[in-house]
Every structure is written in C-alpha cells, then in structure tokens.
Amino acid sequence: MRTVGLVWSGFRMNLKMLGTSSFFLLTSVVQPVIFATVAFYMFRSGGRSGTLLYASLGAGMMGVWSTTLFGSGGMIQWQRWQGTLELGAAAPPPLTLVYLPFSLANAFTGMYAMAATLVWGWVVFGVPLHLVHPWQFVLALAATVLALGLMGLVLASTFILYRYANALSNLLEYPVWIASGLVFSTSLLPAWTRPISWLLPPYWGILAIRHAALGGEVWGPLGLVVALGAGSLLLSTVTFRFFEKAARARATLSLT
Amino acid sequence: MRTWLRIFFVGGLISFRALFSWIRPSVYIPTLLLGPTTQILFFAYLGRTAHLKSDSWFVVGNAVQSASLAALFGMGFAIDGERWTQTLSAVLATPADRAALFLGRALPVLVNAAITASTGFLGGALLLGFRTSWSSVPGLALLLVVASFACTGLGMLIGALGLRLRDVPIIANLTMAVLLIFCGVNVPLDKLPGWMHATAEGLPVTHAIAAARRVADGASLGSVRTPLLVELAIGAAYLAAGFVLLRVFEQQGRRHGTLDRA
Fold it and tell me: Which of B26, B45, B174 sits opposite A178 (nearest CB)?
C-alpha cells in the first residue's frame, strides 16, 4: 500500500512539474503535430490519402517516444542540477521505485501527443477518427505508454554515470522511430535490423494500436508489449542497483 | 580596422570556444554529426512508403535543412548563453563595435552549420547510396555554405529575441519545424497550399535546397545563380534584421536595467 502511495504521489507531482514545462509542451504536443503535418502532406502528395490515419497514429507514437526519451534522459540530470539526486538515492525505497513514477509521468505526458495528432488530423486534414476496436485501442495505448515508461526507466538508470545523457537522447530519437516502424513498415529496413525492432516495446505497441484502430489482430502484439514492459521493469531494477552502487563506490553520483 | 578584424575573428572564436566549452565529442558526434543522417534515413523511408520521391531527393533536402540545427541553436546560444554565464552585461559594457562583436560570433556558427549539413550527404552516400558527380561537389559545398549563412542570419534574429524572451531553444525548435514543413524539404513546394509556398519563398534553405537538388542532378552552378543569390539576400536580410533588433533590445535593456532578465 505504501508502494502504491509512493508511486501515485510521485506520479502526480511529476505530472504537475511537466505541465509547467514549455519544453515538454513542445515535445508532447507541438512536435508530433509538426511531424504529423509533414507525414500527411507526404502521403497526400504521393497519392496515398487513405493512409492518413496510419500516419496520424504513427506521429502520435513518435511523440510518446520523444517525451519518454527526453524525460528519461533529463530525469537524472535535472535531479542532479536541483541537488535532489542524492536525497533520492539516500531514501529508503529502492531507486527504481523512486524514479518509476517520474518515468510513468513522462510517458503519460506523451499520450497528449496521440491526442494532439488525432485531433489535428481530424480537424485540419479531415482524417476520419473511426476506430475498428475502440476499447482495444484504449487498452493498447495505455499498455504501450506504460511499457515505454518502463523502458524509459532502463534508459534513465544508465544515465546515472553519464553526464551527457541528453546528447544520447538526441541520438536515440530518430533511430527508434525508424526501427519501430512507427510511420512505415519495418520490411523496408535491412533484414539485420529485425531483431532490434522485436526488442523495442514501441514496435509491438504501434502494431497493437494500429490493428485496434484499422483492424487486425491486437492481443498478440499487446501481450508482447506487456511482456517487454515487465522485462524492462526487471532490468531497470538490476541496472539501477548496479549503477547506483558504482556511483556510490566512486562517489560520483553528482558527477561534479 | 585592425581592431575590428581582431574582435571579429579572434573575439568570435574565443567566445565560441568559451560558450560551447561544454561540447565534448560525446555530445557533438551524436547530436550534430549523426543527427542529420538519422533524420535523412527517417524521411527517405517515409518517402518510399508515401511513393513520393527518390532517396536522393530526401538526402539533399534534409542535409541542407540540417544546417539550421547548428545555426539556429548555435546563434541563439551564442547570445543567450552570455546571460547563462552572466557575462552579457560585461560584453555589452565594452566599447567594441557591435557589428564586429556579433558577426564574429556568427562566423564559427556558420562554419559549424556547414560541417553539420555536410555529414548528412556523407551519411546519405554511405547508407542510402546517394551519388552525385565529383564536378557537382564544389557547387553543393558552396550551396551548403550559403544555406548555413542564411540560417545563421535567422539564428541572429532568434538570438536577438533571447534578449527579451527566456525560451530561446524552444523558439529555435519551432523555427526548425517551420523550415521542415514549409521549405520543400520533404514535400514538393507545389504540393503545399499556396500560402505555405509563398511563405517558403522568404525563408532560409528553400532556395538553397531547390538549387542543391538541381546541382546534385548535374546542373552547373551558373544555372542556379538566381536561387543562390536569392538565398544570400534572404540570409543578409535576416542577419540585418537580427542585428538591428539586437541593438534595439540592448538599448532598451540598458535603459530599463533588464539585460540579465528576460
């Protein structure tokens, strides 16, 4: 019960903090709308107007990933700047649990991206909002956002020892969009990239979301999203413990 | 004149090194050298899905546009960064010629932007098989420099706004997005609505991209003289507007004592 309380209060607090950040507003609302606009024009110019909902969903997921990525990349760094990283590390709960609500809030903020691109596509480009399986769509979106939040936790843990995490975040944005096939099929990519795609929750997440919206089998990809999310949580527990221990041993938590 | 040149070249270089001292290879390589290539890959694959244009078309468009990444953020931070390091008042208290002071800061940014953009071509060649004749390379290089100049001019304007507004990186981000949508980077200009097409005519990189695509296809540099000169003129206009705005905001800041507060 105390764990639930910890996660809930941390989640709420971080959500409020993110709500005041113009950078997060840009990443989670404006940027996805921009990419959606480019994708809409590209599909329309290529004579593929029937795929606009496909583009809309993909652009929304791109925003979810960007928000998670920059949130995770910045999470440890911001705590470091604010001087609260040591307090978090010294707190009785495991570090994973301390930062889990932060990561979940980052991913939740990313859901604004999906809402923004769907509404933008509907209002400006006349993209129909007819979802084949609406309830499965909600479930797939929630599970994907949760899995991405947990994946973000793994990333955040690796950034404990890395001062320039934000730079790595910049590098990971497009490659994950590409490898996950968010707005195009991964069959276009070289065959050696397939296993990388399979390991990424956004790959299965967009499949589940797309199938729920446009028709297709949802439960298989959804199950894999949940499994990868659970795997990420387990992995982050190990990595957080390892990196925290290394930072304590070398007295490099603050990296100053 | 010697003092002017010293402030322009030496001062510009020293300020660039000081303001961007936090840039390590571990930051520079992923963000500025690999970033353009990943952007090119993404849009080339998206273009294949949309059945829009060839990979080369996207390589040229996105590589030239990526000059804006280094130019807009670099120029924005070259001015806004002084406030971060609390040296803005000291810099503006000097009797140094303002043109030498600010244009000197623009030169390293311009060079960096051109280098950044050129990596896009390299990435496109390595990963997407982009090819052009060797005789086109000098022309493409010149167009990259001109596009970088135009973007640096726009960056100067954004940097000037940094004397009044707090979120320069946000403004730079939004401006980059505008360039991405409007300038024919990934969507042919004639496929955009008329008002977007018209807006693009006054923005950096639009003309440089159009010219670079023609040069990459084998056209001579002389045949793209008009778009090249238009791009230069647009860059000069933004640079001048940025400089004037800097002077206005500096004087207002002095009068109201708000240089360090945005």
Answer: B45
Burial class (CB within 10 angstroms; exposed 0-12, middle 13-18, buried 19+) of B206: buried
Question: pLDDT band for position A50 (50/70/90)?
Answer: low
Confidence band (pLDDT; 50, 70, 90) for A255?
Answer: low
What are the structural domain ranges in chain A?
2-249
Q: Is A86 left (phi over 0), alpha (psi -120 to 50) or beta?
A: alpha
Model pTM score: 0.91
Please answer whether residues B206 and B186 qualify as being in contact, where contact means their C-beta atoms are separated by less than 8 angstroms: no
* Pick among A21, A28, A29, A38 to test the B interface (most B CBs inside 10 A): A38
